[in-house]
Amino acid sequence: MSSLTSLDGLAAKPERAASGTRLAVRRFLRNRLAVVGLGVVVFFVLFCFVGPLLYTTDQTHTLLQQVNQSPSGAHWLGTDAVGHDELGRLMYGGKVSLIVGLSAGVLATVIGTLWGAAAGYAGGWIDAVMMRVVDAGIAIPALFILLVVSAITTPDLTGLVLILGLISWLVPSRLVRAETLTLKNRDFVLTLRAIGGTHARAIIRHILPNSVSTVIVAATFQIADAILLVAYVSYLGLGVQPPATDWGGMLSSGMTAAYSGYWWLIVPPGLAIILVVWAFNAIGDGLRDAFDVRGRA
Amino acid sequence: MSAVRPPAAPATGGHILDLDDLGVVFTTETGTVQAVRGVSLHVAPGETLALVGESGSGKSTVALAAMGLLAGNARATGTAVVDGTDIVGADEEQLSALRGSTVSMVFQEPATALDPLTRVGKQIAEVIRNHRRISAADAAARAVELLRRVGIPEPEQRARSYPFQLSGGQRQRVVIAMAIANEPALLIADEPTTALDVTVQAEILDLLRRLAAETGTGVLLVTHNMGVVADFADRVAVMYQGALVETGPVEDVLLRPAHDYTKRLLSAVPRLTVAESGGPGPSGEPGASGAASERRADEPGAAPGAEPAVELKDVSVVFGRGKQAVHALKGVSFAVHPGETLGLVGESGSGKSTASRVALGLITPTAGSVTLFGADLAATRARARRALRAGIGVVLQDPVASLDARMTVGECVAEPLRIHRRKLSGRERESLVADVLDRVRLPREVARRAPRELSGGQRQRVSLARALVLEPRLLVADEPTSALDVSVQQAVLEVIGELQEELGFACLFVSHDLAVVQQFARRVVVMRAGRAEEQGLTSATLLHPETDYTRRLLAAVPVPDPVVQRGRRAERLATLAAGRTEEQG
Amino acid sequence: PSGSKNEINYALPANFTPNWIVPIGTPGHLNTNNASISQVLWEPLIAYDGSSGEIGWNKDNSLATDAKFAADDKSVTITLGDRHWSDGEPITARDVEFWFNLVRENKKSWASYSPGKAPDVWSSFETIDDRHFTLDFDRAYNQQWMLANELSMIRVMPQHVWDKTSDSAAVSDLDRTPAGAEKVWAYLIDAGKKISRYASDPLWKTVSGPYRIKSFSTSGRVELVENEKYDGGGAAHVKQINLLSFTTVAAEENALRAGTVDYGYIRASDLGIKKSFTDLGYHVERWSGWAVTYMPYNFNNPEMGAVFRQLYARQAIQMSVDQKTLSKVLFNGTAVPTYGPVPQGQPSAFLSDEQKAEPYPFSNSAARKLLTDHGWTMRDGTMVCTSPGAGEGQCGEGVEKGTEFRMRVLSQSGSTETDNMMSALQSSFEETGIDFDIKTAPVNSVLSQTGQCEKDDPACKWQLSFFGSAGSWYFPAYPSGDALFASGGGSNFGNYSNPEVDRLIDRTTTSSSLDAMPDYSKALAEDLPVIWLPEPDYQVSVIRDGLGGFAQDSLANFHPAMWAWTE
Amino acid sequence: MSTYSFLIRRVLQALAVVLLVTVVVFCLLHALPGGPARGILGPQATASQIAAFNHEQGLDKPLPVQYVYYLNQLIHGDLGMSYTLNEPVSQLITERLPKTLLLTVLSAVVGLLVAVPLGVWQAVRRNKPVDYVITTLSFIAYSTPVYFLGLILVLVFSQVLPWFPAQAPQGNSVADVLSQPQGLVLPVVAGAATMVAVFSRYMRSATLENLTEDYVRTARAGGTRPRAILTRHVFRNSLTPVVAMLGYYIPVLFGGALVVEQLFNYPGMGLLFWTAAQSSDYPVLLGCVLVISVATVTGTLLADVLQRVIDPRVKAGRS
Ligand SMILES: Nc1ncnc2c1ncn2[C@@H]1O[C@H](COP(=O)(O)OP(=O)(O)OP(=O)(O)O)[C@@H](O)[C@H]1O
Ligand SMILES: Nc1ncnc2c1ncn2[C@@H]1O[C@H](COP(=O)(O)OP(=O)(O)OP(=O)(O)O)[C@@H](O)[C@H]1O
Ligand SMILES: [Mg+2]
Ligand SMILES: [Mg+2]
């Protein structure tokens, strides 16, 4: 019998031992677009958080003597309508955009994922009630909620993140629930239950990892949405308050000068938003593929 | 490699399939896998070549290579010539022209082989219209005809069904209908009957045989069932570790094996012992079956006095409600005692899996009660129930679905340890996992692979390893060896047996393979349409069945001896014909 | 482009939909654009506007030809011109009386009512003959105020068509009884709410103005065509006027570029690219408003009220506002520095020299000195009161020791100019040592939260408020500030109160002295009841070359009858 | 579950959701500080006018009373009168809704018509240059704020190249609007851009998933050509999740419509909603929220029904 012990493995010559995570990293690194995306994000993080140390500008005082200047040696990207150095402002506003985008996106994804997984897993009336709440949430236009909130309070950065996170977790929760519904009756979850695994384990170890591609795609969209939303809500007075700013706010105020030829007020923030959102999406895609054990054949 | 030509084979060059020095390499994250090496074989028109061998030896890979359907991470070398075209170098356009008309294939798993959103009639018609210029209506009519031919009742209606509305056996027949739609010159069938119970299996084999005879189709049959080989094949090729070790006419290989591995393989085949057909049971009192078997169950060896590990009392299960309600179980009672193995047999859809799931508490019975280690499942609270379940090992029927594709094999096997032995260190856990993998005859290296990267049989053993790793008090195994070749099956069954000796756990063993049950289980419950048709000691019930149903089941089991099996087949067909005329008369 | 010389396309302000034409209105229907349309259909008794370039009585578009005040300033006798309704009936004193009766009986629901003003100021209406009547006052009033602000509100309505209570009812003298007047009022207001019937309802077909309605859509497009029966002095020059509504300024600018608008506007920030419009055959003209812009202090705010009550503190704040630079840079020169309660965009006799001279010129250092001289010390860039007390060199009554000079503004959102101005102010205040937090909200929300309040109200949290992106306050022709700065005035949001100022304000409406207004102007320019800010233009108009014949009315009305193609 | 009882159950649930929405929205509205009076009547209004306004609009009554009153009105099909536009809200909405619907439906249809084949194509060409290029383009489309995109469209296709008008058709009725199709081009493109970006992603991943299914192998084994496998099998199977998403996308479409309407001077529901929100016009605001939520709930309902049509398994209750 012992000769049978290791028969079918002989054909396999493993290169070297690799853990699941290490494999995922390797798979991620093979996705060129995702690596470029990661590079872009790293660049912008450095740009916004380290950049101001190298390229110091005054972002708290307006300088009405030097508004709307085109790029020059003194101001690499020119100045804006109140005389701030545009490059410095790009760094300054990027901090807010990155922090808010990432945290709100992650917050929304986490809430949505947990809620959706819990509802789908519990099933029955709990599911029905939880999902009707989500339906109602989806059905109330976000603009309305933002408006009410803006009238009641002016949030600080944390508040802003909370608000954006709390209005955008609904769709991810829907997606995750749908996924959970099919997953919870899969044999590997049943096996776990049959041998006495807890519900939490079923959700955390099996259902969530198997919905990871949905979750990641949702998360990247959430991050993108949050960055764009900050700009949108500043219209309502909900965004960051001067002298702070964010890329979206810079873009929308720069837009009023669209016909004046002040391209340096529009192109840099516009490009920054597009690049960062693109980068997060590319990373999300890469992550999805990296964790997707199934779709590789 | 020179194969012994069967007398019926036509001259060289007339082969419909010719593999020459075929090699297949898979590239995976953990390295490359040389799955097939230097395989050369051929199939002549009208001939059936059976490809047997141990699980994971590369049989499916060879079959897929011959279709040009290898997975994306595979690279083939050598040649695989089908009707004059080399598949290995062909482009997709050439292959499309060939597939479905010259060569077609029946896949291993019928559950997922069909497009869920297209009516089956349409899917069959599509294959026809891929290769023939006929009207949609004609193709549809022909699809119905094919469904009738593969023995699906009410084919006109069934043609309009969606795959999910058909049973597994029916779905497999639809796949076969697609495969034979254009009367291919070569039919490749990869374990076409694994998922089916013996009676359906017999019918499908009859069907394939008729096809080969009528249209001169050459068949490459991949199987691990030696009975099927004996029943069906003209020649046999034996694979071992990716290479061919022996090829020859079926009588020669099965009765006078030359290679060591073949010998080992054949010696591992469980053989069904049958009494004279129609003979009375040993008790000699037909009709008193229930009382008789229970008495036997209480005989010494059944741990008298010990309370059963699991007991079902008068359990009924109804799925759905209203018109669509399915009565999956109707008043089923049985008990499994520590140290004993209870076999659960019966045709497909008879409720075996449902009964085992009820025993596990995964399905709450509509009526009746379930006792697990003496505790009524319905009455225990969640926490207590979880504790009870610590003593259970589970192997569910579908080896693909029961492993989480996102975990490595090692993580899958270690999961029960993580739940119930939280204090173990990572190293201890690893060594326990390695031990149990050894026990189910899997190399330790697979621990790092993804379930997807294993063969069907390997996956099934991973499930088993997971069930055994905690040294359970009760093992519920639903078809734990259905995808295994007989040699591994034997090894695995021995492992379970040894462990049972050692640990004294109770085992509920679900299988449609009567020979395995006969060999492995002390007592048996025969299920039919949700009822326990008969139960008793295996030795008695399977040797001297009390019901026609059990007799029919037994008669349909092919035995791995081509000569004997031919006789049995004739006999079975005769009784069937007789039965039919009787019914009509 | 309208293409034809018989039409003019006029762009209404962005995001405004005309929704009222009836010469009497209930609150919420008050809008100068509505009023402009209404006045083109039914001429006012006395059109007191800036259509000629200066604010005055525009007799061409008035039904009255003369107003004679009694020597004691306690009554006026008005003469009507020889004019006819479009249905041929003459316009008589009865039509004026009709308006008078309706408004007197329904003044509570009349949009323009505020206690102590019209119609309370008129004690009786006496018809002399068809074309003459006398209005008696409850006391003596400043003639100009009476004429420009009160009498100009009187509208003349076709009594012979409107004096009824349902579409099918017969016309009678219902308005002469209080109950009847109420019913007629209700009927007219109700009819006025049916915008979709404006073009078809027979009620609105009898007009006195140069135009009548051709179509009126609820999505904003209004078409006016010439009233051929018009017999006044301000006849239409162009057959048809199309009033177009736009969702945003950007959308309107697109239409300008596409040439579909003859008379439109651009953002102040686009003044730099004026050429791109002149190249298209337009000329660009500023349209300044008869308005002031400011940020009210909340004198009752529990945290900062006491500081705001100190004149020196308000002076320091005002000195930190560099109105000239703000106007020039942020508004592209389309705003006018304004240092007091009288609009400074137009020359007028109301403006005092003191206000004009900028009583508190911009100087951060002077502002800082003012604070340090009054017991404040700079700590970490912020002034802190270190010497409390009411005495000389101390912070002043009610200001506690350790109070930091931190103020918070609730500012309207959605305007780049405003955002920029707030940023600039913040920066400049910081220079002085004053912290300035900005919180923004939609303008309605700002207004809702800027209420008069008592110290302990929860609603008294606001400290400064700004709702003046398009000017905070548009005056009637006579810019008296009674509602704004008189103690208890309806729009005195911050509860500013100064008995001396109250007296001056009262004088502006009741005394005939020519000094009344300049005195008031001087006092408030010096006492700083609010933070005075640059007054932005009403709009920067873009007008097709060849369209002319008019001046832009600083009261923000438009007068289609004056528009004419000159070439 | 039969289709009939399924529909009844779904409709009842939908009603419950709408009711929940009204409660939430009503409470939120009345949590606003200050109330609408000052905002509506302007800075010049007097205290007594404000009191009169509050009395007239019932804003001085306790909240539950107001809600019951509102609900009662609602049941009788009355959405109240706009504070600022002095017209019944229902009339305002019926006038503007068709225009917005036209715009959103057109954008959605155009968006889907582009997105779906694009996603499939990308899946087929996975990790090839085309896939990368389209992926990048769709990310760019997604990350470009609609107002920015609209501005660029106008600049390029209306000012520099005078191909399309910068204004949407100005007519009031749908027929008017449709009679000037060239005016719809830019607004529809602006509205469809994000749609394309999002749904091509969903379609791509759904297709990728389906391409690995066993039935694809079966079809290949039957000699079905790759293109036919895509169009006949993979396509339909991939469409199900996309259809499910569509329902939830309705509020997003409305949000986009708002910006597009502003940009292209096309007064519709989106603009009405925005203006009402800016001016605290409670009845209009409530009416719009109600319409949007009903549209969303109906959209999800339709998506569910559509899914049952596409996927027979859903109907049988196993998916
Ligand atoms: N896609 C794949 N990637 C990597 N390795 C694979 C893949 N498919 C199969 N293998 C490996 O190739 C070898 C042959 O697999 P194959 O499926 O042909 O076995 P088999 O003989 O059909 O076994 P069984 O009887 O269990 O189905 C096995 O070791 C398996 O692990
Ligand atoms: N979840 C379910 N819903 C509805 N019907 C079900 C469900 N599960 C099983 N059934 C039905 O119950 C019956 C018994 O099924 P079960 O799976 O127990 O059969 P089995 O004996 O295990 O068959 P096989 O040998 O094919 O595995 C079948 O008719 C099946 O279609
Ligand atoms: Mg196989
Ligand atoms: Mg089963």
TrEMBL record, chain A:
Topology in the lipid bilayer: Multi-pass membrane protein
GO cellular component: plasma membrane
Keyword Membrane in annotation: yes
Subcellular location: Cell membrane
GO biological process, one term: transmembrane transport
Annotated PROSITE patterns: ABC_TM1 (PS50928)
Membrane-spanning intervals of the chain: 33-55, 96-121, 133-152, 158-176, 215-241, 261-280
Keywords, sorted A to Z: Cell membrane, Membrane, Transmembrane, Transmembrane helix, Transport
Residue ranges of every copy of the ABC transmembrane type-1 domain listed in the record: 94-284
Recorded coiled-coil stretches: none
The keyword Kinase is assigned to this record: no
PANTHER family registered for this protein in UniProt: D,D-DIPEPTIDE TRANSPORT SYSTEM PERMEASE PROTEIN DDPC-RELATED, OLIGOPEPTIDE TRANSPORT SYSTEM PERMEASE PROTEIN APPC
Family: Belongs to the binding-protein-dependent transport system permease family.
Name of the protein this chain belongs to: ABC transmembrane type-1 domain-containing protein
Organism this protein belongs to: Streptomyces lividans 1326
From TrEMBL, chain B:
Gene3D superfamilies in UniProt: P-loop containing nucleotide triphosphate hydrolases (3.40.50.300)
Compartments where found: Cell membrane
GO cellular component, one term: plasma membrane
InterPro entries: AAA+_ATPase (IPR003593), ABC_Ni/Peptide_Import (IPR050388), ABC_transporter-like_ATP-bd (IPR003439), ABC_transporter-like_CS (IPR017871), Oligopep_ABC_C (IPR013563), P-loop_NTPase (IPR027417)
Superkingdom as given in the UniProt entry: Bacteria
Coarse class of the protein's main subcellular location: membrane
Biological process annotations from GO: peptide transport
Any one GO MF annotation of this record: ATP binding
Ranges of residues in domain ABC transporter: 17-266, 310-554
Membrane topology: Peripheral membrane protein
Keyword terms: ATP-binding, Cell membrane, Membrane, Nucleotide-binding, Transport
CDD domains in the record: ABC_NikE_OppD_transporters (cd03257)
SMART domains assigned to the protein according to its UniProt record, in alphabetical order: AAA
Region (Disordered): 273-307
Protein family per UniProt: Belongs to the ABC transporter superfamily.
UniProt xrefs under NCBIfam families: PRK10419.1, PRK11308.1
Name of the protein in question: Dipeptide transport ATP-binding protein DppD
Species of the source: Streptomyces lividans 1326
TrEMBL record, chain D:
Localisation per UniProt entry: Cell membrane
A Pfam family it matches: BPD_transp_1
Highest taxon listed in the record's lineage: Bacteria
Gene Ontology cellular component annotations, sorted alphabetically: plasma membrane
Start and end residues of each ABC transmembrane type-1 domain: 97-303
Membrane topology: Multi-pass membrane protein
Keyword tags: Cell membrane, Membrane, Transmembrane, Transmembrane helix, Transport
Gene Ontology MF annotations: transmembrane transporter activity
Residue ranges crossing the lipid bilayer per the database entry: 12-32, 101-124, 145-164, 184-203, 242-264, 284-306
PANTHER family: DIPEPTIDE TRANSPORT SYSTEM PERMEASE PROTEIN DPPB-RELATED (PTHR43163)
Family: Belongs to the binding-protein-dependent transport system permease family.
Protein known as: Peptide ABC transporter integral membrane subunit
